[in-house]
């Protein structure tokens, strides 16, 4: 049985294992610093499909198949798929998994989806409801631009705080037993809205949520920043990461050299023209499922707090003058 | 510990309790046959807000507060909120719960959201990760029309198989202990796509998923239709309900007089001009949280299989000529 700790943290008993992970990305991500960790790089932005949306589904599905292959499990071993994406009505995930003969739970956490899926799947495995689960998330630069901003053909100029939606998908196979790093503790996040209205500054909208969840996790568990090898946020980018440090400093929490942000390590911010860094559900999903799992396999890290962050906006609500709520869920991964 | 049964069913051990439920609806629903069961009827389609989307969030939030009041619990007792809706990027739920100081898990299951939230929350409580949870879902006729079909001002004609999106929200407080009907068994559903392309015929798109989940539940548990007082689908409407019966008949499963559909009982199909019946996440959520819980309180039913059904489409994918995947999750509720 899991145990609740403090106001919002859960200590898992059976400690589900990450059996494998896979990540497939687009060309720009393949040209970035993490290139050698990805399972495949898709040069064609349509991925052989007719639309960007279908391409995103295809990449997500192929990533799931790759992760399954690497886990040594068959699709009949998997009890449940937990997935989601940024598109309207989460269609990238729905269409990716419609031909898979496995029960499916659709999630919406915007760019926090990967940690939301890991959190829920871990709790389901811990409680005995599920033996093996797939956790996956995706995004696509072209489908996201069309959905949230302008048609690509319009060629609109980007603001300095904007981020670049990652084309890619990450998937992890989580199981009740096996070899791999374990998920030991969960801190699900609250929706935090500090009044940011600029939909080109997602980092600012999400960093208060990351702050709230990290702070709650430390308070609930009695741990300090020194207890982690890495504190990995999803896609705050450079602006949001600076905000997160500032907010934590005000609570006397110094991230020191422990903080990394998936949005800042997937691209070369100096050379690749991506504004403040990468974003999108696929960003943290693919970094965790490839580069980070590799660090665990190499023994380079042993305890990582993974906090994917999401901006829960829609173009409709922004056009109505609304502010942008953020959310962040923390998952503790240990060797 | 929960136990897995057959290919996709989970038998819960601790059997979470439905402590209370609440439902708030719009005027048309308030004029329907279930009128006296609702906690409130909002005559103003803006619910005092400036936009339909904000109105939906308001109704959802007020429903949550009402359910909480009726449960005798305080908001600090609640460990997690599980909610979702039909709008782009699920903003009705995100904005409804942004001021609530409780961790939040966003779901997307289209109109299957209420059973998805009950399924996940039950498993989390069963496993000890959560003591008390809120399960809630909403929809709004005006926000859904704008999102999925035409501007209301356009006054487009409706096809015979179309359904009427319910304005309303339902919320349930689920707990590890207390008085009320219990959730004893879960059958999460697969995504099923039988090639339906008509986005004005959601019943046809969803009924194969309802068929698949009901059939799996019966096979996994060894139960027959006679073992239930009611088999309650979400919003198949009259067309989808007929299809469901036909599909089950081909597998030699006769629903007899046990089947009800929330979309068919929330409105008077003869008099209210709602096509094949009600639809939307709010439809099954509000019927379950009010009328059905009342039947349990009266002792009129003792074992109900609740199967909310969702059509996982988006206008974008339909415009691209895609078919409509469906999903249905089953939750067994027992007195």
Helix/strand order of chain A, N-terminal first: EEEHEHEHEHEHEEEHEHEHEHEHE
Q: Return Rg of chain A in Å.
A: 18 Å
What coarse outline of chain A follows from CA principal-axis ratios?
Answer: globular
CATH superfamily label of the largest domain in chain A: Stage V sporulation protein AD
In CATH terms, what is the fold-level topology of the largest domain in chain A?
Peroxisomal Thiolase, Chain A, domain 1
Helix content of chain A: 25-40%
CATH class of the largest domain in chain A: Alpha Beta
Low-confidence regions of chain A: none
Short précis:
Two copies of one chain form a homodimer. Chain A is α/β, with parallel strands linked by helices. Chain A has helices spanning 27-30, 52-71, 91-96, 113-126, 141-148, 202-221, 237-250, 262-265, 281-298, 315-319, and strands at residues 3-5, 9-11, 17-26, 40-42, 80-84, 104-106, 132-139, 164-165, 168-175, 182-187, 230-233, 259-261, 278-279, 303-311, 326-334.
């Amino acid at each position: 049985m899991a145990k609740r700790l403090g106001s919002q943290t859960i200590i898992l008993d059976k400690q589900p294992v990450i059996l494998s992970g896979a990540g497939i990305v687009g060309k720009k991500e393949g040209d970035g610093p993490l290139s050698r960790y990805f399972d495949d790089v898709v040069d064609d932005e349509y991925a052989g499909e007719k639309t960007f949306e279908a391409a995103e589904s295809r990449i997500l599905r192929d990533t799931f198949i790759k992760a399954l292959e690497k886990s040594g499990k068959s699709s009949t071993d998997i009890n449940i798929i937990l997935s989601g994406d940024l598109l309207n009505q989460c269609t990238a995930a729905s269409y990716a998994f419609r031909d898979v003969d496995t029960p499916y739970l659709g999630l919406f956490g915007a760019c926090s989806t990967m940690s939301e899926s890991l959190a829920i799947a871990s709790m389901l495995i811990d409680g005995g409801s599920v033996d093996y689960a797939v956790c996956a998330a995706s995004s696509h630069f072209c489908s996201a631009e069309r959905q949230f901003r302008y048609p690509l053909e319009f060629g609109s100029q980007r603001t300095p705080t904007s981020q670049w939606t990652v084309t890619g998908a990450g998937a992890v196979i989580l199981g009740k037993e096996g070899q791999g790093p374990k998920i030991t503790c969960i801190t699900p996040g609250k929706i935090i809205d500090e009044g940011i209205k600029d939909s080109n500054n997602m980092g600012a909208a999400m960093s208060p949520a990351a702050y709230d969840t990290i702070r709650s996790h430390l308070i609930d568990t009695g741990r300090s920043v020194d207890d982690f090898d890495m504190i990995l946020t999803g896609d705050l980018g450079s602006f949001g990461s600076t905000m997160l440090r500032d907010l934590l400093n005000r609570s006397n929490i110094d991230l020191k050299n422990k903080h990394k942000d998936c949005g800042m390590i997937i691209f070369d911010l100096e050379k690749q023209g991506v504004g403040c860094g990468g974003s999108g559900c696929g960003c943290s999903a693919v970094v965790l499922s490839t580069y980070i799992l590799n660090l665990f396999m190499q023994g380079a890290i042993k305890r990582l707090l993974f906090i994917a962050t999401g901006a829960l906006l829609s173009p409709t609500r922004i056009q109505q003058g609304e502010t942008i709520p953020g959310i962040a869920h923390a998952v503790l991964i240990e060797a």
